[in-house]
Amino acid sequence: MSVKQQHTDKNKLGLLTSTSLIVGNMIGAGIFLAPAALSSFGSVSLLGWVISAIGCFFLVKVFGNLSRIVPNVTGGPYAYTRRGFGDYMGFSVAWGYYIAVACANAAITVGFVSALSTFIPILSTSTLAAVSTGLASIWLLTWINNAGVRVSGGVQLTTTILKLIPLIAVAFGGLFFIKADNFPPFNNSGTSLFEVLSNTVTFTMFAFVGIESATVPADKVANPQRTIPRATMLGLTIATIVYIVGTVSVMGIIPPEQLQKSLTPFSDAAVVMWGPNARYLVSAGVAIAAFGALNGWILIQGQLPFAIAKDNLFPAIFGKENKKGVPYVGMFFSSILISIFMIMNYNKGLVDQFKFLVLLSTLSVLIPYLFSTASYFILRTRDTQLTTMEWIQCILLFVISFGYVFWAIASAGQKTIYYGFLLQMTGIPFFLWMKAKRSS
Predict the structure, then answer these.
(1) Which residue spans traverse the membrane (predicted)?
(2) Which three-class secondary structure state does DSSP give residue 221?
């Protein structure tokens, strides 16, 4: 390796920071509420975690293989879909994913402000204070991310470690406080096993959104063909252990009738374990989790329009980078969009619209997964030298990963799927305009 290459790699994301990007983006503030939401389904929700983890394992294998087949390409699911299906499908996937991440970032910001209100009570009573804090966090992290991928990667690594401390403490410490009588009945939903599993798998699947994070800024990752697959698998493993063990502990500590009504299940479990002051430790973890996730997703959202612009499917201005190699135009535009969506949550007339956008965004993130798995099959089978065993492995990996994501999408509900389709279609005029502009 040349001296120049070594210097370049030092300014990129390594295995540790790439893993923290994945873990940090997956583990946001939502996981701290998950045990309460899942308890209404019953103990079967633990099986939902296992199924989602297995499905994501195959999805991770798909992304790992794609990072080798299409190396050093920014854009992740967008880049893979474009290689497999062409410009329009690549653009359509990126369009939905981009808006989805903006909505998710706004929701994460709201979660961050809510967590901070434990320490700063005025944030729960003053709309001006809440909005100002939310905007300050968005633009502080935008400034940090504009300092370069190494700086934002350092913030991501630090916040990921800090957010894992309370989660791991409650998850593994809680195993010593479990009471078997506290676990809810196996199926508490009043529906069939298949239906309740569909609901829990859809819910738990959303907790794994972010496993593709290291593939999006691939050209900013050192030795991406090796680092991305390893970081993605490591990130999935860490998140899965925290999710499952944490849910088991919280369910085993708090009685089901109390857990279903809890707004702070991890905090309530910590209080049982260590006393009233432990609530502040978990609240700090929630705030750090949200802050770290927002940092990671702002990094991702700056890279996506940059990748599309480089392929002449987005205005060229989004392809500009600053001296640190950061696509600053796309990042600033994204942060403006996040700010608008976040403010919607604090406007009484727009709260319902904001909640709907967040619901819609969850589906819009799954669609790129679906097309990525299909692109993997297309790109892999273009290799005419595949052996019979390689063909079998390719088909099995595609069928399992595609089927898993398709199941999660189908379980999202007719209304969500309907509006998700409309969201994808809104990008058509913009695509046609860009295509006409490129042809002229």
Answers:
(1) 12-34, 46-67, 88-113, 119-141, 161-180, 192-211, 232-254, 280-300, 325-344, 356-379, 391-410, 416-434
(2) strand
